[in-house]
Each structure stands twice: as C-alpha cells, then as structure tokens.
Design brief:
It is a single chain. The protein is an alpha+beta fold and 251 residues long. 17% of the residues lie in helices and 17% in strands. The strands form 4 sheets. Strands 1, 2, 3 and 4 form a 4-stranded mixed sheet that branches.
Length: 251
C-alpha cells in the first residue's frame, strides 16, 4: 500500500508540472520553433491599437489616349456643304470623330468630313498632332456655319469637306472632293501675294516664320506630319500663301 501511494504521488506531481505529455525516456524536450505572436503596435490613438497600413498615393492620370471613329455620314448632316452636282457623292464621304488637343491644354472630341479614300491619311496625321500636343481651336462641320467658309474661318474652325469653288477661281476646291483640311485658319490665314488677308483677326499672323500657339511654319512638325502621308502645304506655294491648307494634291 505504501508503494502504491508513493506511485500515485509521483504521477500527480508529474501532471501538475509537465503539462500532460511526457518526453520519451532518455531524451530532452525539443525547444519550440514557433515565434511568439507579435505584440500590438501602439499608435497615437492609444496603447494597444494597431497602426493601419499606409494608403497608396493616388496615381495622377494623364490625358486620354487618341481615338478616331470613321463612319458613313447621313445626308441630313450635310444640309449646306453638299448638294446634287458636287464632284463627289455624300455616300463617298466619311465622318471622322476623333480626339484633338485644345488651346486650353485639354483633350476634346471633334468632327471632320473627308473622302473615304483619305480617312487613313487624316487619322494618321491627327494622331501625330495629338501626340505632339499641337493645339486646335475647334473642329466642327462647316455646316454649323451654314456652309459659309468665311464664317468658319473667322471662328478659327478646323474643317475639311465643303462643296465650293477654290478661292478666286471657278474651279472646284480640293475641299469639294473631301481631300483637303484647313487647320487653325486664324493662326494660319490665306495671304495674297501683296500680303493681305480677308480676316481682320488674322492680320497679325500674315507673316512667316513667326512664333505662336497653333502657328504653322515651313518645315515644322505639322508640315512634316502631313508630308509623311504625301500631303502638301499651301504655305509652300509661290505668291499667294494658304498657311491653313493641306491637301492630297498639294493644291
């Protein structure tokens, strides 16, 4: 009995000191490899509070990418610029809705009507103009001005198709074929051989070369962009200069 009591005492002592599991005889218990839980990080809001992960700085987004959509144009969109007897059918024209860079340093969406055979040329050039941040005042169909070329130019409107005669001629303009673009006509006026221009708001832009936003100069990036698709510039003509004018034929 004394031996049994002694054995019971030893077992109870072992349970109270060893946590319920004995190491095998002849070996020592292996140390734990688990790291203790990290202590909570204090913050200004009080002891024991955890510090939240830092919020990433907002990413500054740049201007939207250039986009261009080419679609057929309905006859009703051309109430003034097209009529029966024009050298091309309105069915041969296309509406290009595309991005352009404004004088306000923002991206805008404008519209040009051109012949379907030159849409790739025009999109290629205006994508380059957008990439170089060349500013354009506005880009609206000339029908907004009831087909009046003078009013469109006076408003510094960049346009393309308009079924009209060439300035000072009875022959069709390249615009009547949808194969010409007038770009920022106030900053790049039509100038006679004597140095005159029909638009008072364009007189200060009648000479080249000159510095200024939206101004086109001989051999500059704008001229080279059009030349890359084979288009000529009216500013290279002898005598009369048409600084706004680019065309497939060069005339």
């Amino acid at each position: 009995m004394k031996g049994a009591a002694t054995m019971a005492f030893v077992v109870l002592a072992s349970l109270s000191c060893g946590g319920g599991q004995q190491a095998p005889a002849g070996s020592s218990a292996a140390p734990s490899t688990q790291s203790p839980p990290a202590a909570p990080t204090s913050s200004a809001s009080g002891a024991g509070a955890t510090t939240p992960a830092p919020t990433p700085s907002p990413t500054r987004t740049g201007p939207p990418p250039f986009t261009a959509k080419v679609t057929p144009i309905a006859r009703k969109r051309l109430p003034y610029s097209w009529r029966p007897g024009c050298p091309v059918s309105y069915r041969d024209l296309r509406l290009i809705t595309m991005t352009y860079w404004g004088f306000d340093d923002r991206a805008h969406t404008g519209e040009l009507v051109v012949r379907k055979t030159v849409t790739d040329d025009v999109v290629t050039v205006f994508k380059k103009l957008y990439a170089m941040r060349y500013p354009i005042r506005q880009m609206r169909l000339v029908d907004v001005y009831k087909g009046d070329d003078y009013d469109s130019i006076d408003a510094d409107n960049t346009s393309a198709f308009n079924c009209r005669a060439a300035t000072g001629s009875s022959n069709w303009s390249n615009h009547a074929y949808g194969e010409a673009v007038d770009l920022n006509p106030r900053e790049n006026p039509y100038v006679t051989a004597s140095g005159g221009t029909a638009h008072a708001n364009a007189k200060k832009y009648a000479h080249r070369p000159m510095r200024g936003e939206g101004v086109i100069n001989p051999g500059d990036r704008v001229v080279r962009a059009f030349a890359s698709v084979g288009w000529g510039w009216g500013g290279s003509w002898s005598g009369t200069k048409d600084y706004q004018h680019f065309s497939r034929s060069g005339r």
